[in-house]
Structure of Acyl-CoA hydrolase:
Amino acid sequence: MTDQVTTAESDVPEIPGKPTSASRTTLSHIMTQSDTNLLGTVHGGVIMKLVDDAAGAVAGRHSGGPAVTASMDEMVFLEPVRVGDLIHVKAQVNWTGRTSMEVGVRVLAERWNESTPPTQVGSAYLVFAAVDGDGRPRRVPPVRPETERDRRRCQEAQIRRTHRLARRRAIKELREKRAAEGYQD
């Protein structure tokens, strides 16, 4: 899904922006035995689901309605998560386009029975597209960064978007070239 604009949309007045704090959220969950992989640590897919859940809540809040996951740019696992860890998934909108938005997510873990500070165990960037009742893209409010950190995140999100679009364009061009040369994939 892309930020394509139709003629009718270009005539629509601008939507008022929303500050980053308006949709920021934290989802917390305690990891249990049923969340583990064969190594006895929490399965990466379980953490990715929590990341997508938190990011989806933020995207829906910011856009004022349904939003769907369009892509996950990056998911980095920094430390293993163990049974009994209390996971905190913190998410916020970093950047908005016309119909899409990037949500940054940070995953922290702390032992449920210890009073030590949480440790960052992962991070991710997801792109969501706001959709209407028929599943078509709809406009989202611009995000208004409030702090210097928010402004940095917005600038970094724009760099990631530029790289995503360039990668997509390069792959499309390569496939078209190979098709013109008679290769069938």
The beta strands are 18-19, 25-30, 67-77, 85-96, 100-111, 119-130, 143-144. The chain has one domain: 7-180. The CA atoms of residues 126 and 177 lie 30 Å apart.
